[in-house]
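Model it.
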Amino acid sequence: MQRLICLALGCVLSYLVGCGHQVGSLSDLASNQTLQQQDAISKRLYRLFKIYQRSVLSLSAPLRDGTSNGTGFLVSSDLIITNDHVIQDSIGPITVRWDTHLNLISLKATVVKRHKKRDLALLRLEQKVIYTPLPLAYAHEYAIAEPTVIFGYPGLTQPNDVEEKYLHTLSGLVSSVQPKQLVLDARIMAGNSGGPLVSLLTGQVIGVISSIYVDSDEEDSGEFTEGESLGSAIPIRFVHKLMRGY
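Modeled.
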């Protein structure tokens, strides 16, 4: 009897050890998969950064009492999209600069079309450039938790004559899809305004970053209300509307 009990206990212990090994293996597998996913995302972000580095620009608009700084991006060889609130009080041409690492000369741009209600503006460079415009999604179907990346120049509080500008990226998820606004889980900083919101899945621009909350009344009336860096973006369809005729 004692021998039978010992054999039974041995079988139980062997089973438990086997289960523990199996659980450990599953845990290791899940951990490895997570690391592989993170590595794939990092590589995807790096590729997008290298492709878009010459197409996302730093903007400085001269004001009566300083400068207004933000981000813009190329939609053609000489047209730039940004936020209206970045350039609305400008008293002269906007200075456009590239990432300092690229060693490219700055250019001037002027406003050709604005839409205050949607917080969008279209600028024209003083000369055409050879850099590839960002691909715009047309009828994008937004999804909750869609992975995105934000390109921009945050923290731009320097005077207009400071030349050093460095492009940053910020990853985040779409946390809410509203009729005229996307809400992101990423905190938007000053200087990011006007930058592209890019789908990590398609590599296309699906929105324009804005730190101003957009009134949800009729499109052609109403005013903006200052928000608290809610992490909001303007859906890409409003960019297409602004660009009609260009």
